[in-house]
Amino acid sequence: MLEAHKILGAQLSEHNGTLAPENYTTIEAEYAAVRKHAAFFDLSHFGKLRVSGKDALDLIDRISTNDLTGLTPGMGKQTFLATEKGRIVDLCTVWAQQKNLLLLTSPANSANVKKWIEKFVISDDVTVEDVTELFPMLLLAGTSAAEFLSHVVQPGHKTFLDLSKMPRHNFIGAFLKTGEAFLARTNMVMNDGYIIFANRSDDESVWNLLLEHSKTYGATPAGQETFEIMRIENGTPLYPYELNEEVNPWETNISDAINDHKGCYVGQEVIARLQTYEKVKRRLVGLSSTSKMPHGSKVYSDPSLGGNETEVGLITSSTRSPGLDKEIALAYISLKHLIPGSKYIVRIGEKNVEAKLSILPFLI
């Protein structure tokens, strides 16, 4: 789809080994479109794995934090893959198709997740394929996204498709006017979001189809910079920033990807103990400031509020929000220092920057 992006004047840059559009117009215009109407993003660099064989669902369930046993074709769930020490390998969306499972991983992490899964394949009838390059992935998000998408689905499907009522993470197979596609509901950047998978041969056709109908719904193509703003505003963790082997699943606040009552799975003993005995020591939160808060910066308690200055956390992702007109960041902060209205000091070299605690998602 690179030529299609170039025709629109997109600024391209490398993301995890793949060229992707940074922006098409301005961040402000793209951001306004997705907040007021809709925007569509090329997220083809996200990882995709096809897991097949009669034992596929059983195996993925045995190494997942969520209960996947009831998944039937058309259903999907988010789940963590965790190490034996209860640390995160990745947060994946698992979709049950007719003959296999499709797993969505973070960008640049599909090979790592594939290797992790294969580690547990002993006598199981399971095959894991990295199909990242086979299936382009578009994300359509915004308040008019469902109505917009319904108009690019073939007329014969409109009688049974009410995309606005599709359960989160579930999917349908549908025919767009360009051919067959896979449509899934997602809250990756906001509640009104839909993932579109098409065959590689149809990628430009699907992109151009969205462009053809975009003006009617006030929609626009948007790049990675706008996606990153929306992701951070939504509090969505991503590998390797918020998701890595230094983090346990409870710290991310994605509790619906963990089943409290599930029996044995890889990392279960540690993960269950952390919750049962209240041993979780930090949480992913939002911080806002008038100054930049670079990734990797350490966060300290504010001594002006009383007490000694203490290191309390770490900035994992940051950006500027056009909607809030502030610098915002995701950070892991010690539970002991998570008090409504709290202020912190973010240390950037020799400079101290004041930051305030924000509830996730950031309220726009």
Notes on the structure:
- With 364 residues, the protein is of the alpha+beta class.
- It folds into three domains: 146 residues, Probable tRNA modification gtpase trme, domain 1 (Gyrase A, domain 2, 2-Layer Sandwich); 84 residues, Alpha-Beta Plaits (2-Layer Sandwich), CATH 3.30.70; 84 residues, Aminomethyltransferase beta-barrel domains (Elongation Factor Tu (Ef-tu), domain 3), CATH 2.40.30.
- It has nine helices and 19 strands.
- A six-stranded mixed β-sheet has the order 10-11-12-9-3-13, sandwiched between helices. Strands 14-17-16-15-18-19 form a six-stranded antiparallel beta barrel.
- A hairpin with a 2-residue loop joins strand 18 and strand 19.
- Helix 2 packs across helix 8.
- The longest helix is centred in the middle third of the chain and has 12 residues.
- 42% of the residues are buried.
- The model has no long low-confidence stretch (mean pLDDT 91).
CATH architecture of the largest domain: 2-Layer Sandwich
Outline: globular
CATH class of the largest domain: Alpha Beta
Tally of strands: 19
> What profile does the largest beta sheet have?
6 strands, mixed
The side-by-side strand order for the widest beta sheet comes to 10-11-12-9-3-13
Treating each run of at least 4 consecutive H or I residues as one helix, how many helices?
Answer: 9
Distance between the termini: 32 Å
- In total, the number of domains comes to 3
At the fold tier of CATH, the topology name of the largest domain is Gyrase A, domain 2
The share of residues in helices is: 10-25%
